[in-house]
C-alpha cells in the first residue's frame, strides 16, 4: 500500500468557514513565517548586522530545541485538531508561541539596552506591536484548535526563557567576537558589520550619507 500523502504546512492554517475572527487569527498565526522570511531575510540582504544574524540564529536554535522537546514528551494535540486534519505532530510545547515569545523578549531587551537601528522608535513598536502580536499568536493557536491552553503557555514560557538566555549569551559572550567576524573573509565578502555600539544608528547613517553626498557635490563642482 502506498504511503499516505503529507502536505507542506508552512502556510496551511485552517479556520471555520464564515468565522471572521478565525480568519483574522489564522493570519496572525502566520506572523512567525512573515518575521522569518520577510524580516530576517530582508535584514540580511539590506543590513547584514551581526546582532540581527545572532537574533535569527537564536530563533533557529529555539525551534530546534522545541522539536527535541516535542519528540521527547510526545504529548498529543487537542481533539479539536483532528477536525483540521493537521495532527501528525506533537503539541507540547507550542512552537508558534515559543517563537513569538522568544522574539518578543529578545526584541524587548534590545530596546531596553538601546541596541538597534531605530532605538528611539523601538519602544513604541515593542509596546504596541510585538507583545500584542505574541499574545494574539498564542491565543490563535488555542482558538483555531491546534493547541491546548497548557501547550501554548508552555511554549510561551520556554520561548521567554530561551530569548533572555540567548540575549545574555550574545551580548556578554559572543559580542567579543563581533570585530573578528567583521574582519573575517566572510565578513569582508558579505559586508557584515556591527553597529550595536553606536547610540543612534539611524542618525549616524543619515549624517554620514549627507557627508558623502556633499563630498561628491564638491568634487563635481571642482570638475
How would you describe this structure to a colleague?
The protein is mainly alpha-helical. The protein has nine helices and no strands. It has helices spanning 20-28, 31-46, 50-73, 95-112, 119-143, 149-173, 178-183, 185-190, 201-222. Helix 5 (119-143) runs antiparallel to helix 6 (149-173). The longest helix is centred in the middle third of the chain and has 25 residues, at 119-143. It is elongated. It starts with 19 loop residues before the first helix and ends with a helix. The mean pLDDT is 82.
Give the secondary structure arrangement, pairings included.
Blueprint: H1 20-28, H2 31-46, H3 50-73, H4 95-112, H5 119-143, H6 149-173, H7 178-183, H8 185-190, H9 201-222
Helix pairs in contact: 1-5, 3-4, 3-6, 4-5, 4-6, 5-6
The SSE string, one letter per element, is HHHHHHHHH
Q: What is the C-alpha radius of gyration, as a whole number of Å?
A: 21 Å
Mean pLDDT: 82
Which structural class fits the helix and strand makeup?
Answer: mainly alpha
N- to C-terminal separation?
79 Å
Largest sheet: none
Molecular shape? elongated
> How much of the polypeptide forms β-strand, as a percent range?
under 5%
Question: Total number of β-strand segments?
Answer: 0
What portion of residues is helical?
Answer: 55-70%
Amino acid at each position: 500500500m502506498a504511503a499516505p500523502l503529507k502536505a507542506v504546512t508552512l502556510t496551511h492554517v485552517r479556520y471555520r468557514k464564515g468565522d471572521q475572527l478565525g480568519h483574522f487569527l489564522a493570519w496572525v498565526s502566520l506572523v512567525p513565517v512573515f518575521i522569518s522570511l520577510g524580516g530576517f531575510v530582508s535584514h540580511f540582504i539590506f543590513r547584514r548586522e551581526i546582532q540581527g544574524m545572532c537574533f535569527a540564529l537564536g530563533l533557529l536554535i529555539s525551534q530546534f530545541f522545541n522539536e527535541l522537546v516535542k519528540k521527547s514528551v510526545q504529548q498529543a494535540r487537542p481533539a479539536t485538531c483532528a477536525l483540521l486534519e493537521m495532527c501528525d505532530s506533537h503539541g507540547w510545547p507550542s512552537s508558534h508561541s515559543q517563537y513569538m515569545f522568544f522574539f518578543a523578549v529578545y526584541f524587548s531587551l534590545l530596546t531596553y539596552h538601546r541596541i538597534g537601528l531605530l532605538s528611539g522608535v523601538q519602544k513604541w513598536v515593542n509596546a504596541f506591536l510585538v507583545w500584542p502580536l505574541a499574545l494574539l499568536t498564542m491565543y490563535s493557536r488555542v482558538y483555531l484548535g491546534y493547541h491546548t491552553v497548557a501547550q501554548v503557555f508552555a511554549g510561551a514560557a520556554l520561548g521567554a526563557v530561551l530569548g533572555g538566555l540567548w540575549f545574555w549569551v550574545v551580548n556578554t559572550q559572543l559580542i567579543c567576537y563581533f570585530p573578528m567576524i567583521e574582519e573575517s573573509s566572510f565578513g569582508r565578502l558579505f559586508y557584515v558589520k556591527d553597529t550595536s555600539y553606536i547610540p543612534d544608528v539611524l542618525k549616524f547613517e543619515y549624517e554620514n550619507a549627507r557627508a558623502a553626498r556633499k563630498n561628491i557635490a564638491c568634487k563635481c563642482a571642482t570638475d
